[in-house]
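Hey, I'm writing a tutorial for new members on how sequence and structure tokens pair up, and I'd like a real worked example in the thread rather than a made-up one. If someone can provide the structure for the chain below, I'll link this post from the tutorial.
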Amino acid sequence: MSSGGLELPPGDSGHEGGPADAPGGAPGGAPGGVSGGVSGGVPAGVPAGAVSLAPTPAGSVRAGAELDWGADAWSEVRTRAQRAGRAYIWLNLIEQRLRAVVGAVLRPIYEPVHGGDDWVVAAAGPAGQEWVQRAVAVREVSRRKGYLLDPADDNVLSFLTLPQLRELMVQHWPCFEPYFDDRREIELALDELEVTRNVVSRNRALSRAVLEQAERASARLLEVLGGGAGSPGADRLPIDAVEDLVGDRYADVISVHPDRVRLQRQLPAEDLFGGARRLDAIGIGLNLLVQNFSGRRLVRLTEAGCRVRLLFLNPASSAVKRRERELGLRKGELSRSVEMNILHVRRVRAGLRDPSRFEIHVFDETPRFTAYLVEGESSGIAVVQSYLRRARGMEAPVLVLRGGGARGSSRDAEHGLFPTYREEFESIWQDSRPVS
């Protein structure tokens, strides 16, 4: 037996110091099983195969070595914190929305009979007595310690967790059924969020896949519960929770991409241009539109009511020749590419019933940026790139801006970049020449 009264693992005869049944009951026959020395790296007096409880010799381990975090570790920690923070915002919104829905439906049924906060206890019923009583106790502790800073939270309903709110909803589904079509859809979305809630509440690593799943489930659930900001079809890049909360820090910039390849993974051309009511584009060759959005699709877009204005760099200008030299292209290579793009959009215009809605101009100034300003019925989006001296347009960083809609129009006009590029486009358009 060990000194703590627990039986340690038995020894075997293969260890140094002789068999376990050597005279004296100790390895190597040490009398009494106690010795002040160490033989063969095993403290004397410890039976062979037993766990050594001897302290580690001083100086053998450098203090604090395991506590150091390198650059990779800090990067990983920051990534985890960012993902957890984003997920928490969604979970907070869902919990507040579900709490409001549960209160709006069940309070008029139970409160007239039970009054006060007792209506929550009554709604929970015998199956929920344990967790609802725990919520009551937590509220009382919060009251005594002064944790309740907002009087609006001084009720039992505010202390119920997301799974408990869900349980109330499921137990009383006949009361909720007139307001929601599909109970299964709500339950599936809440199941997906429960995985994220457990990860975030315990500060475990949240993978990108789980975060994206939670964001999709949250957006879908908010829409089902009547708390969404509209369908994604109306806003090609729907405003998400994080942008609503911290968007003012970044004017109207909603995303930044190191190059156009990564942009198109997140925002394909169909999502960018599809459903537009107004499309203004300026650049050298406008490859993002011409090479990624088919001519037939462009015809249908215009026939559906979209007004298009395309502003190309004049392929015969000296600015094109300078750009060719900057990029190390052969003489005339860039100008021929621009000419081909112009010929393509001319054929698109020729196939329209009303060609006046599709205008093509060229400008002769030094190109400073390329911009696609797309406006829908209620929102707008812009993709902007600056021209770098040695990088093609495909390789230049990309800004995605929100603007042009009713939401936040006054803020965007004062602090945003969308109106700045809109003004620059209009200025160059006035000095440009139409293409026949």
